[in-house]
Structures are given as C-alpha cells and as structure tokens.
C-alpha cells in the first residue's frame, strides 16, 4: 500500500496579509493610506486589523519594524558582498543606492516619508525609525573604526546624512544621479581617516 503525499498551498493568514499589503501600500502611497484600502487589498475583515495590531497605528508601527529589519539586513549584505576592505564596503552602499533609485518602483525613503507624515510626535513609528537610524549609524561607524578614521562617529553622521539625502533627491529630482554625487562626497569623508 502506498501513501500519497498531499501538498497543500498554504495561504498566509490575516495578520501576514495585512502586513504584506500595508508594507507595499505605505511605501507606494504613504502612511496616510486609508484603512478601507488596506483591508480590501489584504482581503481581511476590519476585526482582523484590531485583533492583530490594535488599529492602524499598530499596523504602521509593525510594518516599520519589519521594514527596518529587512533594510538593515540589506546593508549588511551589501557590505559583506563588497569584501573585507572597509572603504569598499562603505562605498558599495552608494553604488547600491544608485541601483535602487533607478528601479521602477522607487518612491524614496520609507522612513523619512513616515516621519514627515506621522504628525503625532508620540506615534510609535517615530521610535522605530530613530532606532533604525541608530543601528545603521552603528554599522557605518564600525566600518569607519576598522578603516582607522580619526572621527568615526562624526563621519558616520555625515555618511548617514548622505544616504538620507541620496534617497530624498532620488525621489524628488528624477533624472539626476544623486548616488554618484553622494559617493564622491563619501570618498572625501573617508579620506579624512587617521
């Protein structure tokens, strides 16, 4: 007697569908996207939003938390792929930003857009974006320490400003190449080592 293996397609549950829909829609349309649009896209009942996230603010915060973890991992992957040289690892970020900006779905920096759109200074999303920037700063600073930069924390501030500016300019000034300009400026920052 043989047993047949039955394979079933696993459909994501309401929580995951809400997260996926919100992650896409808040990036393409901003955090001001309507609840009805989120629910329709996720194909879930309003009750699911409140059961899983307590409301739209909780969903936005969870989307930001999820996105920051993914983006931090991307920074690490980019630097790892660039090899062992800290200078190459840091400059690779700007090379990757040029590719991201050239993509058809690029809409700018999710975190800058969220911070500007979330009018309530106590919205939990702000704490998540601040923490994300601290973590990226720490990644940059660690590479600058390895490079022997004389002011690694300050240089990390500058590089983070270049990253934010690159993403903002890439979204607001089509046809320009802000990543190339930022890379040139980053090279000057890196030359200020020891």
UniProtKB/TrEMBL annotation:
Record keywords: DNA-binding, Transcription, Transcription regulation
Keyword DNA-binding: yes
Gene Ontology molecular function, alphabetical: DNA binding
DNA-binding region: 34-53
Entry annotated with the keyword DNA-binding: yes
Domain HTH tetR-type residue range list: 12-71
Source organism superkingdom: Bacteria
Family matches, as PANTHER family: HTH-TYPE TRANSCRIPTIONAL REGULATOR YJDC (PTHR47506:SF1), TRANSCRIPTIONAL REGULATORY PROTEIN (PTHR47506)
Protein name: TetR/AcrR family transcriptional regulator
Taxonomic placement: Bacteria, Bacillati, Actinomycetota, Actinomycetes, Streptosporangiales
